[in-house]
Automatic annotation (TrEMBL):
<keyword id="KW-0472">Membrane</keyword>
<feature type="transmembrane region" description="Helical">
    <location>
        <begin position="248"/>
        <end position="267"/>
    </location>
</feature>
<feature type="transmembrane region" description="Helical">
    <location>
        <begin position="121"/>
        <end position="143"/>
    </location>
</feature>
<feature type="transmembrane region" description="Helical">
    <location>
        <begin position="279"/>
        <end position="297"/>
    </location>
</feature>
<dbReference type="InterPro" id="IPR025576">
    <property type="entry name" value="YwiC"/>
</dbReference>
<keyword id="KW-1133">Transmembrane helix</keyword>
<feature type="transmembrane region" description="Helical">
    <location>
        <begin position="97"/>
        <end position="114"/>
    </location>
</feature>
<feature type="transmembrane region" description="Helical">
    <location>
        <begin position="41"/>
        <end position="61"/>
    </location>
</feature>
<protein>
    <recommendedName>
        <fullName>YwiC-like protein</fullName>
    </recommendedName>
</protein>
<feature type="transmembrane region" description="Helical">
    <location>
        <begin position="225"/>
        <end position="242"/>
    </location>
</feature>
<feature type="transmembrane region" description="Helical">
    <location>
        <begin position="18"/>
        <end position="35"/>
    </location>
</feature>
<keyword id="KW-0812">Transmembrane</keyword>
<feature type="transmembrane region" description="Helical">
    <location>
        <begin position="195"/>
        <end position="213"/>
    </location>
</feature>
<dbReference type="Pfam" id="PF14256">
    <property type="entry name" value="YwiC"/>
</dbReference>
<feature type="transmembrane region" description="Helical">
    <location>
        <begin position="73"/>
        <end position="91"/>
    </location>
</feature>
């Protein structure tokens, strides 16, 4: 019992490099798409700490509140508070994303409590949380394109003429007199089109990775998962072709389809260690990262 309650060195770190790749790449894309500045760099650091809090809290919930996982969770939460609270005070506009992430955190902790964090719905929660950060961080960027988003009215359609004013509205929440006005909560630029496109592409790509990993590890040998993975990837290829004939996205989707077919087929003839799947997915994620950026920024 004492050994089970003692915090171990490995409890402080997520030993899955692939998870770090999937969590941080959409945020890094938002950093590049939005335009590097202090706000986007600050958010990138905050998001990394958010993930540290998430995986340590997930361990705590999975162990049904074992004291073993309290020190890492508390330490990461304190670090997040120290770095994140000043951003929140000076950038109250970040709270417009709070409802979505409160729901995602609740679902994530529920999946850990039920020990279903590797289920399809548990993985979907993680993918949505990570992918959305491309839009969140891009909206705080310094690039001129962040001021030209989905216009909510005719006046906002010309927001590019006053990018500084638009970014000021993004950084701050509306006053009390506008608290019930959706346009005040979501000013022009808070939903940058290039960020939204990146979010959608990352979500599709990362869930394809979820399916591939399942066909190789947890659900290995199950034809239903192989079929689901192949159907998902074929749909992704079709979508990239129909959506605009972008050569980068078509290349990405074809390469992802090729690896989704090759890995389970190869596994039928030889034993493949999980590390091989992990390395393959890490390279696939990096290739997709480059293709998504190239497609969005071209």
């Amino acid at each position: 019992m004492t050994a089970q309650r003692t915090t171990r060195k490995r409890d402080w770190f997520d030993n899955q490099p692939g998870a770090w790749v999937m969590v941080m790449l959409p945020a890094a894309a938002g950093f590049i798409i939005g335009g590097p500045n202090l706000d986007t760099l600050w958010l990138l650091a905050i998001w990394a700490l958010c993930y540290c809090v998430q995986f340590s809290a997930a361990h705590w919930f999975k162990a049904h509140f074992s004291h073993r996982y309290l020190p890492p969770m508390i330490a990461y939460t304190v670090a997040l508070t120290v770095i994140g609270l000043p951003f929140l005070i000076t950038h109250t506009g970040i709270l417009r994303w709070a409802p979505l992430y409160i729901v995602l955190v609740a679902l994530s902790m529920l999946s850990s409590w039920l020990r279903k964090e590797r289920s399809l719905w548990g993985n979907a929660v993680s993918v949505i949380a990570a992918s959305t950060m491309a839009t969140v961080i891009a909206s705080f960027g310094s690039a001129a394109k962040t001021a030209c988003a989905i216009p909510l009215n005719a006046a906002q359609a010309s927001c590019g003429a006053d990018a500084d004013a638009a970014r000021a509205m993004i950084r701050n929440m509306p006053g009390f007199s506008q608290i019930f006005e959706p346009r005040a909560w979501w000013p022009a630029g808070s939903l940058p089109m290039n960020g939204l496109i990146a979010t959608a592409l990352f979500a599709l790509m990362q869930y394809s990775s979820v399916l591939v990993v399942k066909t190789m590890i947890r659900e290995r040998g199950k034809r239903s998962y192989v079929a689901a993975s192949w159907v998902w990837h074929v749909m992704l290829v079709a979508l990239t072709i129909v959506a605009g004939h972008n050569p980068f996205l078509i290349t990405m989707s074809v390469l992802l389809l090729a690896r989704a077919i090759a890995l389970p087929v190869a596994a039928r003839y030889r034993t493949m260690k999980p590390v091989v799947t992990g390395i393959t997915e890490a390279f696939a994620s990096l290739i997709a990262f480059g293709c998504i950026l190239a497609a969005v920024l071209m």
